[in-house]
Amino acid sequence: MTEMVYGAAPVRDGEPILPKWWRTIDKLTLGFVFTLFAIGILLGLAASPPLAAKNGFEPFHYVIRQGVFGSAAMLAMLITSLMSPTLVRRLASLGFILAFIALALLPFFGTDFGKGATRWYSLGFASVQPSEFLKPGFVVVAAWMLAAAQEINGPPGRSWSFMLCVSIVFMLALQPDFGQACLVLFGWAVMYFVAGAPIVLLLGIAGAVVVAGSFAYSQSEHFARRIDGFLTADVDPTTQLGYATNAIREGGFFGVGVGEGQVKWSLPDAHTDFIIAVAAEEYGLVLVLIIIGLYAGIAVSSFTRLMRERDPFIRLAGTGLVAMFAVQAMINMGVAVRLLPAKGMTLPFISYGGSSVIAMGIALGMILAFTRTRPQGEIGDFLRGRTR
After folding, report:
1. Domain extents for the chain?
2. Residue pair 237/266 in contact by the 8 Å Cβ criterion
3. Are 278 and 263 within 8 A, CB to CB?
4. Beta bridge partners of 127
5. What is the rounded distance in angstroms from the CA atom of residue 162 to the CA atom of residue 141?
6. Residue 285 has what pLDDT?
7. Collapsing DSSP states into helix, strand and coil, what is residue 120?
8. Residue 120 φ/ψ, nearest 5 degrees
9. What pLDDT was estimated at residue 388?
10. Best exposed site among 12, 255, 281, 309 by fewest CB in 10 Å?
11. Structure pTM?
């Protein structure tokens, strides 16, 4: 439809798929993702052996599993990045429906693994967290609805996407998983803003979130405990935040040395939620800044390409996916340095976790597919043509 309206640039007929993919892909983002995965394996070598010993496994049991999960994620990312935006939209919609059903059935068939929140399905040899796969699918479906609403005589996509978002947030809050609920709501709000939502409406939604948070604080002991731990002036040194804070302080600029860190022996989630504390202690601020730079590089490179995109659906879906990816990284690191309450959220491509890394690989594959250079010209070309 875009080509029919605005015209298309010449296409290299008969060009093989892989050379065309390599010519049009965002190579900078691709390189940054592989670098993050390599850093994740490096930190896994440091963080996971204590947990493996505690659970009676071989020293590098979790590292090997992370390598398998990560390889599957990289393969999923590459395959997804080869797809056209239309195919991505169709498969993402199907995946979203399946993940939504799985999320709805969690209270009946899910397990909490003793963590107080029913978020997983146990498969015996592994576990699956539906919310991780739901996020990229929801972004694509919501972007499709919002883009359709901009068409003449289009459906009420804004209302549909909002109702869908509220239903997902409600199911996540029941687990409880307030971190993922906030992430889904944030991703939708960013897309809604880019689609032209009035700022007054977004402020109203923000106010509703504050009211809902106050209600959750008064009704949920799990939620209240985390907020109280964040607001207290003194950090208990025997808590996860206390161990993480001390590890970051001890690491300094260059770290205490490879394998010399102690936080991995104290933190039960050193290989997942608090892996940045291991990085800070053993490798220092230098590695932390490199990691932050890689996430920022992915976001800036992707947003730069999306700003030149004409298709409203691609622009909205890509923006939502990138925003959700970047904010998840910010939340994880913000919790470790006590800028945010504990959320139980992984650091993309670095933390251990099968569902998390594979779902994130699919999400980045979607971003790479949406930001590929296509023979339709850029939005700047169209705007310049309008002014002539």
Report:
1. 2-379
2. no
3. yes
4. 122
5. 11
6. 92
7. strand
8. -125, 155
9. 47
10. 12
11. 0.88
pLDDT tens figures, 188-214: 999 999 988 777 777 887 788 788 778
Q: How confident is the model at residue 12 (pLDDT cuts 50, 70, 90)?
A: low
User: Is-contact 175 167, C-beta < 8 A?
Assistant: no
- Residue written as token pair 């050379």: 19
Structure tokens at 333: 């690191």
Sequence-distant (≥ 6) Cβ neighbours of residue 269 within 8 angstroms = 240
Q: Cα–Cα distance between 170 and 173 in angstroms, integer?
A: 5
Which pLDDT value is given to residue 10? 47
Q: Which residues of 315-331 are buried (b: 16+ CB within 10 A; e: fewer)?
A: bbbbbbbbbbbbbbbbb
Please state, in angstroms and rounded to a whole number, the distance separating the CA atoms of residues 49 and 60. Answer: 6
The region, left, alpha or beta by phi > 0 then psi within -120 to 50, assigned to residue 378 is beta
Tokens standing for 246? 């001390």
30-34, 161-165, 267-271: the lowest-pLDDT one = 267-271
pLDDT for the residue numbered 387: 45
Between CA 238 and CA 267 the distance in angstroms is 9
DSSP annotation of 264 reads: G
* Residue 119 backbone zone (phi > 0: left; psi -120 to 50: alpha; other: beta): alpha
DSSP string for 169-201: HHHHHHTT-HHHHHHHHHHHHHHHHHTT--HHH
Residue 125 exposed, middle or buried by CB count within 10 Å (0-12, 13-18, 19+): exposed
Vertex 131, ends 366 and 107: CA angle to 5°? 155
C-alpha distance from residue 278 to each of 26, 107, 255, 354, 359 (Å): 30, 34, 10, 20, 24
Residue 293, classified by CB atoms within 10 Å of its CB into exposed (0-12), middle (13-18) or buried (19+), is exposed
Q: Is residue 50 helix, strand or coil?
A: helix
pLDDT band, residue 8 (cuts 50/70/90): very low
User: Which residues, including other chains, have CB under 8 Å from residue 21's CB and lie 6 or more apart?
Assistant: 81, 82, 372
Cβ neighbours of 60 (radius 10 Å)? 15
